[in-house]
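Journal club prep — side note

Before the paper discussion, L.F. wants everyone to see what a predicted structure for a comparable chain looks like in token form. Sequence:
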Amino acid sequence: MTRDEWEALYDDIATAEAKASDSDNGPLEIFNKMVLKIGENSDSVDPWINLIPDSYGLCVVKSGFALLLSMAKAHSETRQAIFDAFTTVRDTIGAASSRGVPFQSHSSVYRVAGELYSSIVDAIQELLAIVETRKESRWRRTRKKTQLRDPKEILNSVKEKAEALLAEVNNCRDAVIQKTGKDTQQTLGKVEIIYWKAVEIRESVSRVQKGQDTQLSIMENINQKQDILLNLSQCREESNEGLLQILRDQQKKDQATITKLESIIREQLLARPDPYIPANRREGTSKAVITLERLFRILSSSLTGTGASYGKEFDLDVLKMRNNDLHTVMSSAATIHPTSQSQAFSALNHDRFFEWMHLDHPDLLYIDGNCQVNATDSTSPLSLLCARIGLTMAKMEPDNVFVHFYCGLHVDPGRNNWYGPDGMIRSILVQILAALVNKDILDMSFLNRRSFIRDLEDHDTHALCDLLHYLIQQFDADTTIYCFIDGISRFDIDFRGTFGLLKVILEGIEGIVEDDTLKPKLKILMTVPFRSSQRLRRIIDDEFYISLSPHALGGRQLSEGSIESSIQNPLTPSFGPSSFYRH
């Protein structure tokens, strides 16, 4: 309603109010009592204010309502009906207000509230018209004339609008509740998703933390192992340096031997008497039919046949082959895993090894290493074992004889004069000859048969084994000959009859060891990095054979100190049956 309309209604109310009495039952007193009564249950908000927020309009409505009650006092039923109707409307508005739905916040509620508001104003106007007995008021003249309705109908119309407001508020509230419930379910679902995501994140963080802890532990272990490996590497380098110094000393001795041999050969080339043939034999009674120079040429060449020409030039550098092989094996130490070294070292803890080392009789020890190595590798942990035992013993027993041959370094017939079993036995013979010359005890008078010399020129395997037997017998009883033959299985092949030659040589060496009249202590150590074939294994007697366990325990490396300690301490306990196999 506009302000002019409110003022017109207010003028009618003021005119009617002027005629009212001033008793305690006057309109203002009744209005105050009514307001007091309907406000008893209101905690904070007057329901009418919720319906009619305009203060001026609210004042007019309340004034009109009070005037109606005053003017209808002559008609008690009408007066009571008006009072009850507006009380019901007030209660309905109060109920609608208590639903928590502001009338101005929702379009549908706002519309229905406006209709109720209008019906209340219209009802006041119509009821005033009914109870007014005077001439038509100024306000009535401004309105279109209409037929007056019954008061009950007017009041029922207001009640219906009030109930419509309550129903709309309830509908709106229900819709809000449903939406809130739906939103709550969605929110709950999202909260549950967030919860499980949080659980997953927490578990992931926990796993990451555990992983980080594990990585930290692994890194600490790696650092510790690196420190250990660094210490082992330093010890190994120091040990290698010590052994290499021994090797350099041996090279000096070999150079002296080579110089001595060159002097002898030069004398022989000048047709001087062979100093290694006794004087009585040089006179013609029983003298050797070959010179030392010729014998070296036969043993150093891979050519065969009685008519073979060995050339006029002779290079004694072939004696350096052993030291070159030792240097190669020692250089491979850095590539051999500590676990494999530890397994090879377990051979030194074997009771049978101590028998081989310390008994004052010739002996042969054949070791199957059972190491996890590449079959194509030229050296193995057992190669390093042989080299370091030999060099350590050379330091401890410098007057004894040390012979080495590493089969894995001599497997190419096109590039190596020392290939195969034939090259192996010839290399051993050259080293034995050099040792006899170095000790000034070589006697060649036994080489007095041309047929035997022809067999040597043909590199006959049986003749070469016999020559080895003869030469070894020339050492005195106080001498120990250590002969290391590593990787013997590299010649366990049928190419060019290689295995047949190997079988003859192994049987010949075994026969020399078993010679009851042999003067020096011959110690033969043969190794196979993995496990021997059955046919190779059958050649070796059980008393000479041991097999290392592939799961040998212990952490000692193949260093000079550890080997020297084990050799000097024959009481070191063995690992027991689990560490080796004896057949």
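L.F.'s comment for the group: The radius of gyration is 62 Å. Keep this in mind when we get to the figures.
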